[in-house]
Design goal:
The structure is a homodimer of 222-residue chains. The first copy, chain A, is an alpha+beta fold and 222 residues long. Chain A has a single domain, classed as Electron Transport, Fmn-binding Protein, Chain A (Pnp Oxidase, Chain A, Roll), CATH 2.30.110. In chain A, strands 1, 2, 3, 4, 5, 6, 7, 8 and 9 form a 9-stranded antiparallel β-sheet that branches. At the A-B interface, strand 2, strand 3, helix 2, strand 6 and strand 7 of A face strand 2, strand 3, helix 2, strand 6 and strand 7 of B.
Chain lengths: 222, 222
């Protein structure tokens, strides 16, 4: 089992029984999503913004327009952190302070560099689009060199990371456990509804397999 | 219509046609969730972590154990930013770079202070729990003074804020719009599944109205 070394930066201090440093488990959290929160410094103020990402091995990729203030700032900061979180449930306890959520969350630390090679940028943008919906890139109009040149692609090598997973019921004080108060978990899930066709789409263009497959694996079961 | 003033800090530079500063619309985004991402400085490194929050007027409240490293750090930073985001759909375009998401996101800036008055702390913790699931607090075992004393409650006055909402289909290059490539939107929703009772709960304790109501308003329609 490959693990990230614990350091002052990534070591989880609260709820240490829920902390993990296992590379495969952290990658599983990253691969279950495509939106991350990137923290960066803007003129001494800390800003945390959502961005889409793709993962290849121990690298995380962000992209945006070459004029994107945030990405340009990020590149200047160099050291950043990225967090991905999935909400899995509301944990309703018998007292207020034991309310919690079930979740999977990973925080990554590393340095950023700009990727300039056009072939590399193309492979990365494929990864970012396919992270959102697998199999999409192959069906698209091919990207042009001009588009590649105008797009800023940023690579973060994950130097250290930690994750936390909570996946259990309410944990009340012993003295509260037999109170006549309803306790339990409300499972939360992110689901997809039926895909909506673009209004310009000719009628003979059927929904492709990758879209239907996405819907089938992400629709609600209930 | 009350608006936050635009400044260097909160002014949206990219996608300005999607930016808004309207207080009511920003509050609606905040009230649709209870998990925010807080960016803060830890020894010169920027970290962005998920926390639960409650809103009362123009104040956002965070809480945690009095030993919570993050909250103590946050209080030292004083100036922080908080972001709340709801993912509403995958936007699948005919070319890679026009892929996007539909979303509602708000970013808040302000100063933090600790709340020390116990009565005030109690009212705030009620707000935080009810932000997660409305009507919950009234049914709980009352909070004790010891619990209130051991809990760190932090108040952020929203000094400025901005939001972005994207809620439309794919916007392709004109020359791509009639290509034989499926385009459209896959709607994404966060839904709840049927609540799971705690295994210690006596059989005669029925699911209370506030839990059933939460489920009925958050379950999947499809």
């Amino acid at each position: 089992m490959e693990e990230f070394k614990k350091s002052e930066l990534n070591e989880v201090k609260r709820g240490i029984n829920r902390a993990l440093y296992d590379v495969d488990k952290i990658n599983a959290i990253l691969d279950a999503g495509f939106i991350c929160f990137v923290g960066y410094n803007y003129n001494g103020k800390v800003i945390s913004l959502p961005m889409s990402y793709g993962r290849i091995g121990n690298k995380i990729y962000l992209h945006g327009s070459g004029k994107n203030r945030m990405l340009l700032n990020l590149l200047e900061c160099k050291d950043v952190s990225i967090t991905v979180m999935h909400l899995d449930g509301l944990v309703l306890a018998r007292s207020g302070l034991h309310h919690s959520v079930n979740y999977r969350s990973a925080t990554l630390f590393g340095k950023l560099v700009e990727v300039e090679n056009l072939k590399e940028k193309e492979a990365i943008l494929k990864c970012v689009v396919d992270q959102m919906i697998n199999g999409r890139w192959e069906e698209l109009r091919p990207i042009t060199n001009l588009e590649l040149k105008r797009t800023l692609v940023v690579e973060m090598t994950i130097e250290t990371a930690s994750a936390k997973i909570r996946n259990e019921g309410a944990i009340d004080e012993k003295r509260d456990r037999h109170l006549p108060i309803w306790a339990g978990v409300i499972p939360i899930k992110q689901v997809s509804e039926y895909p909506l066709r673009d209004h310009l789409l000719p009628e003979d263009i059927k929904m492709p397999d990758h879209v239907l497959e996405y819907y089938n694996t992400h629709k609600s079961n209930s």
